[in-house]
Amino acid sequence: MRGRRAGGEVQRRAPGGTYGVIMAGGESTRFWPLGRRRVPKQFLAIAGRHSLLQDTARRLVPYVTWRRLLVVTRADHAAAVRRQLPHMPPEQVLVEPVGRNTAACAALAAEWIAARRGDAIMIVVPADHVVKNAGQLRRALASGARLAERTASLVLLGVRPTRPETGYGYIEVGKRLPGGATPAFAVRRFHEKPSTAVARRYVAGHRHLWNTGMFVWRASVFRAALQRCMPELRAALDGVCASDAPRRLRRVYRGLSPISVDVGVLQPLSRMRRPVPQMVALAVSFDWLDVGSWAAMPDLWGCDGAGNAVRAKLVSLDARDCVVYAPQQLVALLGVKDLIVVNSGGALLVCARSRAQDVRAVTQALKRRSWSGYL
Amino acid sequence: MRGRRAGGEVQRRAPGGTYGVIMAGGESTRFWPLGRRRVPKQFLAIAGRHSLLQDTARRLVPYVTWRRLLVVTRADHAAAVRRQLPHMPPEQVLVEPVGRNTAACAALAAEWIAARRGDAIMIVVPADHVVKNAGQLRRALASGARLAERTASLVLLGVRPTRPETGYGYIEVGKRLPGGATPAFAVRRFHEKPSTAVARRYVAGHRHLWNTGMFVWRASVFRAALQRCMPELRAALDGVCASDAPRRLRRVYRGLSPISVDVGVLQPLSRMRRPVPQMVALAVSFDWLDVGSWAAMPDLWGCDGAGNAVRAKLVSLDARDCVVYAPQQLVALLGVKDLIVVNSGGALLVCARSRAQDVRAVTQALKRRSWSGYL
Questions:
Q1: What share of chain B is helix, strand, coil (3-state, %, to 5)?
Q2: Rounded to an integer, what is the distance from CA B356 to the centroid of its chain?
């Protein structure tokens, strides 16, 4: 019954066309000391000549145009977004007073669209991913947009895993849905960061996809999903994109818990017997990389013969499988392996590669010691 | 016969008193990137407020006075020596055109003394050692001076080992000589850097001393030893401290091989059936440290609870037994152990602690790549 009511709010069509929504609110504590509070990784040219944000926007724009691009970011980064994306109308930077994770982020974009367009397709992507073939991505997004329009589903972009990656989340899929150029599957459940053994089974079993955190849905469908799974968030943001927005937004955001789309919406839906809206995973095959931590750099930069991924002037003697970022500086490695070495802005990180996910603990330690100047 | 002839050159007394001779010609390639070609470690305040050279001079001066202190160094470091030791008469910096290791260094000082004083006691010490109790050292040196005067021996300062140190050389001693406040022993042979197992036996057996590289002898006795063991060096330097010194010195030094006192004189003597002059080892017990590589720093600086020896602003998470030198900089260690991390002058070293002796290989690699700016 509840499902039917939630579904009932959804309009038949998305009259507002298709919007790209880039979520650029991250703190990137795992990229310390390069990523800082003032300049998180999405604003940095980690992967190439342009920042991750600029690359993300350039991948979407041929499909959605600058006039239909939204970037959701935190107040302290709004200026950086406008500076880095000068072609985007500045009012399309949706400013969150503080970061409250992706559920709030996507919800705010949905409210903005609801207030201005009634409804539209939303292509929701993080700002910090790397995709090598943008054309493939756009074709997958177009498939997703058609599917989202036609079925009123939450469409998840899943990538067929090519290696037993333990740092990603996985989507377990069920039966294949009929039709469509890109294979689409029902979503069964979600698995966060598996062990290597489990990840190997996932790769071999062909029933699991990497969860890219890229989604396609109609604003109205997502709002219905919020109504069902996070009604407080839905209520708090209702109508917040009207003219009195800034002050109300500050008040509202202070009261929000930081919850991701996955935890707040997708995982609860996956546990329901009759999820409405439904979730569909597109299974695509392209070079996609969640630049989640320094450990991702070898995939991004490539390696020398000893497995070292390097952005520095390097002298390496018996050093293997290290990640080194210290542009302009000489770095000598001697007899070490599986290390991450980053020197940036007066702070040096030396970290076991297996602990890349824990770099945020360093930033927490800095806060505790009141060494915030290094954050 | 040869022994008697060599011994016959030795005068009965050393009329010139006692000279301190500091050997400060080292390149300190094992302290890269802190120690550089232009500023080797002896000029750096690694241990405390003063440089190792200044500390070395201050330990000797209450005993020998500034007017009886000689510092032997390379031409490119003479100015630094004079600047760091302003109380020492500048002409007492004996300048080697190029570094040729300690045999040439001590021989040059012996020639200088022979030319000006005829004979004198020489206390020969490296510039890069740390001694915690200077009073104890001076008492040992005074014992050595009396012994050297009385017996016309080469007196070696040996320290009773307190741990199975594998980075030091050891003196194996024979029978104890009669008399003297400080126990003195005949020298049997020398052992370089033993394995841990062997070093343990040395510590347990009480027949081995750390070879400190500090020596006491009469200039005439040492010249006689050179005559016997390194006659070419002795001949090449004969009279070199006369007035035409600089030009001749350059020519002479170009032809010299870099050989240490130990290899060139002491070890050959120890293999002779009738060594003349004889060698005597004083067995002293004091806190002495050969600051030979970064691995020595824990003894010098002390450690935190996790065994980290640190000169930096440190955030340490699950990090053990590391040596960190990066003054003024923030360093974060995460999940690493047994590393040496040094950031200095635009160059960063990350090195396995067990490879501290191989840091010079980095400097050799820099030479090969023509990155000499970092040397």
A1: 40, 25, 30
A2: 18
Rg (chain B; Cα; Å): 21
Q: Are B143 and B71 in contact (CB under 8 A)?
A: no
Give the CA radius of gyration of chain A: 21
Cα nearest neighbour of B327 on chain A: A346
B-chain residues near A326 (CB < 8 A): 348
| Spatial separation of the C-alpha atoms in residues A102 and A257, rounded to whole Å | 11
Q: Mention every residue, 6+ apart, whose C-beta is less than 8 A from residue B286.
A: B131, B132, B133, B136, B137, B140, B159
B112–chain A nearest CA distance, Å: 42
Residues of B in contact with A361 (CB under 8 A): 317, 334
Residue in the structure block whose two tokens are 């001590």: B106
B179 in contact with A, Cβ within 8 Å: no
Cα→Cα distances B223→A201, B2, B18, Å: 77, 14, 16
Inter-residue contact A258 to A101 (CB < 8 Å): yes
| Nearest to B107, CA basis, from B306, B260, B247, B245 | B260
- B334–A355 CB contact, under 8 Å: yes
At A333-359, the pLDDT tens digits run: 999 999 999 999 889 999 999 999 899
Handedness of CA B29, B33, B37, B41 (dihedral sign): negative
- CA separation for the pair B170, B168 (Å, rounded): 6
Q: What is the pLDDT of residue B173?
A: 97
Amino acid found at A260: S
| Nearest neighbour of A317 by CB, restricted to B313, B343, B361 | B361
B215 backbone dihedrals φ, ψ, rounded to 5° = -130, 155
- Suggest the residue from A329, A330, A358, A372 to mutate for an interface test with chain B (most B CBs closer than 10 A): A330
Predicted TM-score (pTM) of the model is 0.80
Selecting from A315, A336, A341 the residue whose C-beta is nearest the C-beta of B365 gives A315
Q: Do A330 and B350 touch (CB under 8 A)?
A: no
Asked if the Cβ–Cβ distance from A350 to B333 is below 8 Å, we say: yes
DSSP letters, A149-176, are HHH--EEEEEE--SS--SSS-EEEEEEE
From B360, which residue of chain A is nearest by alpha-carbon distance? A334
The ipTM, to two decimals, is 0.80
List, for residues B248-261, the tens digit of each pLDDT value.
899 999 999 999 99
Place of tokens 């047994």: B338
